[in-house]
Each structure stands twice: as C-alpha cells, then as structure tokens.
Design a protein that fits this description.
113 residues, mainly alpha
Amino acid sequence: MLAHLPGLRAMIMLTMLGFLGATVLAFRFNVLILLPSTLFGWLVVVVCGVATASSGMSIVSNLVLVAVALQFGYLFGFVFKWGTLASRRRSFLVKSAAVPDSTFYKISPENHL
C-alpha cells in the first residue's frame, strides 16, 4: 500500500542512505563532516526533485528529511563506536585467568640486590 504513494520510495531510500552514510562517517570523521555531507545530500535531493518535476513542498520536506537522517545516523554511529571501544577497553582491563598472580612481581630494591 505504501509503495503506491508517489515519491515515498525515494524518500525512504534517501533517508536510509543518509542514515547509513552518516553512520559510516561517524567512525572516521568528527562532527564537522556533517556540513559537507548535508550539502551534498541537499544537492542530490534538489537534482532528483527537479528531474522528476516534484513540487516545491516535497523537495523541501526531502531536504529536511535528509538533514535529520544524516544527524541521527551520525549520532547512532558515534554511540556505536563509543560502545565498541568501551567494550574493548573493558575486556583489556579484565585480568586473564590463564596467568597466575605470582607470575609477575614488582621489582623492589630488596629483590634487585
């Protein structure tokens, strides 16, 4: 039923691509990457809207949708990256059971002489 609405597939596709693209960008870049990626997304929306002779209101709603999807995608990617790094850090802090406690000892001046 939803597929019969005009332009709905394009809106869903743009939202999903913006969300996933921003998620990937969050792993490598800082938050300033959202500005050029939002401008590029807007360019794609305007070109697609003009090519399909969409109304001005649908183009504006797609512009807002792409900008919000990019921001939420970046936020999701940032939180996912933080959670991944935090879980790695926690696994390194846990003492391994394979090495007994007496294997390594501190060198003190009494033991060194």
